[in-house]
Amino acid sequence: MLPRSSLTRFLSGPFILFTVIMIIKSSLAWMVIFDDIPVWKPLLTELPLIWICFCLIEWFAAKRRMWAYLALNLVLSGIFFAAIMYYKYYGVIVNYHALAQVNQVTSVKSSMFSLLDPYYLFIFADILIIGGILIRRRIKLGVTERPGQIPLDRRSRRRVASVILMISLVICMLNIYPNRASMSEITQAEQMGILGYEAYTILADRPDKPVPLEEIDQDHIDQIKQTTGLESILDSGAAKGRNVIILQLESFQNFLIGLKVDGQEVTPHLNQLAQESLYFPNFYQQVGQGNTSDAEFVVNTSFYTPPNGAASTVYADKALPSLPKLLSSNGYQTATFHSNDVRFWNRDQLYQALGFDQYYDIDYFGTADSIAFSASDEMLYSKTLDKLEEMQAEGSPFYAQIISMSAHHPYHLPERKVSLTLPERYTDTLPGDYLVSQHYADQAVGQFIDGLKQRGLWENSLLVVYGDHLGLPIYSLDRDDKVLMKEIYGREYTSADMINIPLIMTAPGVTPAEQLDQIGGQVDILPTIAGLTGASLQDQLHFGQDLLRESGNLLPERYYLPTGSVLNDASLFIPETGYGDGTHYSLADAGRQDIRQVENRSELKKESSEEAAVPATATTDDDTVSSSGYITKDEYERALDLMHLSNSYLIQLPDRNTEK
């Protein structure tokens, strides 16, 4: 037994002071990240690991203990702050893999600052105060006992620390060990504690054993996907020989198509394009940590993003099968256009891996008429048109991917570019700024389409337009923002709405004006383009499907939703620890109405004022058949298999410097 006097003197030192401080900080982080959490939960999950660190200080720091505590306080505060900010931006818990991308965060610092509520900085206030006191008073470092108190000798201090350390280790194991198999990273962090989750990701990060390369083929993938044939409205190769122009729109969500605010169309040019083209309203993003660069990767490869990190860094050294290589083998020139620095998100290496003949970045577009951190969309399209005209003059068809940038979070459009006047209730709100930015982006797209027509490119091209990723994360919206989103949708804004982006495809004179309601994702763009251009995929592995010829899609999601999230034609499933306690969200609502029949989005009548959700147990007993349309356990497991197969195949590809 420990002498009571020893324990009392131990607790009267910095141990208890910094314990109280860390309780306050961990509670702040939990308030931001988790919903409806009992007050005791942060204490039970965060304190044990914090005490382990404190006990190590007591064991090994003979002198300058206060400074050691202060340094550890700074590190732990930084972790909690990073967890808050990362969650507000991505909706997931930060881990050490994200630290590899810290240089990218500095490039989008305006986005980070826009999510920063002033009270978050309270997490660092005590460090400045205590540090200032230590310096000003020139406290004799390591001595924290009150005047007249007999100092606790180092041996006794270690004895007390050892007991607390052992108890804390046991509690930590009880928090972490039972929750290792949880699919949802948010659930893991809630059960393990934020600090416990961070420690677990470091100590237990062992990649899944890859499936042998010889066992991965297209028949295997098709068997897992279980798609069915669809009577196509177009013959295979209907756009053969045409230029292929892919326009990737920054942060463009599907609700913008057909949206009017007080009678004003937000995106009139894209509305018209959607009405005159093949329009897929039930289309979803599949990006990961790399955001825009991940969208480029998925669209150009028909593979999924990696379990951790951005595809542009994880897979950039591989000999990737890709759309540029496929079309190049069919006689196409290939180029990609992005007005930012090509080194941002390692694109210089990604573009080489994808096999683009040329790329054009800030060196070509310059910095004149800049918005955010690159040339405006108007400048992007204007100078891109010059190059496209040159490429067409060379006589062979071209494939060009164009990456827009001006409507980038936090949507602070220069006053000179603002042309949409919104009602006062939208002023200084994230949805309001978003609509204003996307209205500008739409105007620039209209100018680009006019340019294609004026330069003789329009009639000889296949134009593909889609959003790269969400623009309004649910976890970034405050109370007023959510009220506005409810006004726009006519119901609560949901996770499925958040990741819903549009896909528009048009080949003038070939494609009909038709809305196609089959579900699709970014992974499906490559095979759909291949089908339209007549490019054979017989020898090219792909995880997507031709949206004009196949139905019954299965779309795995990760990063903005917990790993294991998946969509089918009827619902979105989000797991907790696994399938059994996950939740299904129905996609069946009036948002699927034809935009030609909707004059004002506020006229839409929704089934419910809240997101329709049922627990996973509401599915049928049959794991392979669900008459309700909800995701079955079989579909959930097949979606996980697809992501594992994709990563297994990619990490075993030869390095591109050995590609012949």
From TrEMBL:
Main location: membrane
Signal peptide (from-to): none
Enzyme class: transferase
Keyword set, alphabetical order: Cell membrane, Membrane, Transferase, Transmembrane, Transmembrane helix
Pfam families from the UniProt entry: Sulfatase (PF00884)
Bilayer-crossing regions: 12-33, 39-60, 67-87, 119-139, 160-177
Name recorded for this polypeptide: LTA synthase family protein
Protein source organism: Paenibacillus illinoisensis
